[in-house]
């Protein structure tokens, strides 16, 4: 028999739980299907020393907020897992753990047919809340590295001690790559870091966390439709910074002074050697320029608002490469491990609906697709930069819940959505 629901939510992380909370409040029948267990990604796909890069006071979900004693601190991996898992305990959402969705397709009679590992379901509405990071990216030329080199993706990295003895190459300096490189460096490992175009941001400036300044400035509330970068912002790499030990900058130049080896963009593997583009200096300069531009915007805001904030000297680069290394043989350098931190690909092959662009990304407006009744939640830049943060997910979930409530006929047809 086919199980019937008004809404099927796919994914039991913070996004799926957030819309479930709203649906519970509205009395709308639904089920949340989670392939593994609630919030498992926070525990299973993060390294041991992981911390959030957003301060605890910004951790809020519908009907739930951080209540610990360190609002300006940064939750570690276990605390983040417990935060999200504890959220579920506050309202008893209809989550079914260990149930995978095999396929979703539009039904000829309306709504959606949902095939699961526990049998078929039918739903009037489907909310896809599985995020946008599915398949770890490892380049094909990784196959040409020496067979005795340990290779793993950043999602598999746990600690320096779990890697074999020897030097470590980290490829990618986005949020994960930069923090993993720091973790290895602090553990006393010699680190080689391949840089790309990731920007950076200062942790603190003029007496406050930069996140606090940007929050007050409304930066996280600007919609992608109003942003100068437009939809292209969804492809941007996040700024690297860390919440470790109370929060601090990640300055790759300072790491280089302390012995970390830095390289430009990785091009290929040929004849057993890695080849790099001579882009290191320009990448470091570009990352610093972004950080300083954010400080410029904070200065302007402080001046406009007449805020009494302490002055602070601007950053001066502490290191520059004397020459750009463009070739590296791993065995000669003593490198025994490679951590690939170059992102993920989306994988929605199970979702059979015409809502994807040529790169496999869902096309939507605030999570609402062109297919009636099909929605996405928890995507980077779904509506604003803040969509990637707990509070932003909460706002996006409320918007979709209002939409579902309207389309389900609970609200009058003249209702408007904020």
Approximately how much beta-strand content do the residues carry? 15-25%
Uncertain ranges? 411-418
Helix content: 10-25%
Q: What structural category arises from helix and sheet content?
A: alpha/beta
Describe the global form: globular
Task: Compute the average pLDDT.
Answer: 94
List how many beta strands DSSP finds.
22
Radius of gyration: 23 Å
Structure notes:
The chain has helices at residues 14-26, 40-44, 77-89, 175-186, 210-216, 252-257, 280-305, 330-333, 390-407, and strands at 3-10, 30-34, 60-61, 64-65, 95-97, 101-106, 112-116, 119-128, 135-136, 150-153, 167-171, 191-194, 204-205, 208-209, 261-263, 266-270, 273-276, 327-329, 335-340, 344-345, 351-352, 374-376. The protein has 418 residues and is an alpha/beta fold. Strands 1, 2, 5, 6, 7, 8, 21 and 22 form an eight-stranded mixed beta sheet that branches. Strands 10-19-11-12-15 form a five-stranded parallel beta sheet. Strands 16-17-18 form a three-stranded antiparallel beta sheet. Strand 13 and strand 14 (208-209) form a beta hairpin. Helix 1 (14-26) packs across helix 9 (390-407). The model is unreliable at 411-418 (pLDDT under 50).
Compact overview of the structure:
The protein contains nine helices and 22 strands. It has 418 residues and is α/β, with parallel strands linked by helices.
List the keywords:
FAD/NAD-bd_sf; 418 residues; 22 strands; Auxin_biosynth/cation_transpt; alpha/beta; CHP04046_FMN-dependent; 9 helices; oxidoreductase; MSMEG_0569 family flavin-dependent oxidoreductase
């Amino acid at each position: 028999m086919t199980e019937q629901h008004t809404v099927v939510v796919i994914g039991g992380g913070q996004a799926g739980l957030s819309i479930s909370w709203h649906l519970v409040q509205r009395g709308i029948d639904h089920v949340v299907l989670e392939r593994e267990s609630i919030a498992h990604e926070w525990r299973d796909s993060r390294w041991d020393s992981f911390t959030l890069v957003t301060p605890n006071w910004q951790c809020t979900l519908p009907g739930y907020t951080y209540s610990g004693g360190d609002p300006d601190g940064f939750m570690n991996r276990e605390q983040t897992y417990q935060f999200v898992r504890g959220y579920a305990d506050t309202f008893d959402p209809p989550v079914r753990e260990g149930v995978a969705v095999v396929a979703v397709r539009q039904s000829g009679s309306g709504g959606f047919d949902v095939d699961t590992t526990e049998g078929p379901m039918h739903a009037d509405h489907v909310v896809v809340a599985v995020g946008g990071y599915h398949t770890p990216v490892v380049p094909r030329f990784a196959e040409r590295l020496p067979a005795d080199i340990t290779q793993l993706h950043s999602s598999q990295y746990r600690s320096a001690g779990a890697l074999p003895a020897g030097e470590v190459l980290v490829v990618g300096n986005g949020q994960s790559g930069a923090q993993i490189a720091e973790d290895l460096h602090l553990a006393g490992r010699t680190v080689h870091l391949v840089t790309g175009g990731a920007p950076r941001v200062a942790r603190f400036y003029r007496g406050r966390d930069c996140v606090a300044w940007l929050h007050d400035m409304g930066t996280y509330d600007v919609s992608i439709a109003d942003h100068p970068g437009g939809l292209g912002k969804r492809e941007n790499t996040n700024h690297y910074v860390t919440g470790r030990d109370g929060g601090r900058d990640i300055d790759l130049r300072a790491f280089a002074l302390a012995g970390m080896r830095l390289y430009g963009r990785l091009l290929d593997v040929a004849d057993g050697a890695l080849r790099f583009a001579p882009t290191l200096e320009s990448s470091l300069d570009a990352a610093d320029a972004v950080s300083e531009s954010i400080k410029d915007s904070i200065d302007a805001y402080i001046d406009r608002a007449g805020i009494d904030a302490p002055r602070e000297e601007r950053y001066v680069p502490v290191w520059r490469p004397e020459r750009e290394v463009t070739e590296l043989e791993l065995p000669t350098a003593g490198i025994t491990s490679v951590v690939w931190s170059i992102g993920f690909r989306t994988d929605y092959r199970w979702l059979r609906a015409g809502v994807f662009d040529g790169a496999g990304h869902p096309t939507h407006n605030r999570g609402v697709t062109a297919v009636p009744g099909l929605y996405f939640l928890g995507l980077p830049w779904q509506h604003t930069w803040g969509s990637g943060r707990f509070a932003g997910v909460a706002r996006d979930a409320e918007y979709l819940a209002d939409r579902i409530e309207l389309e389900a006929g609970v609200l009058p047809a003249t209702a408007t959505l904020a």
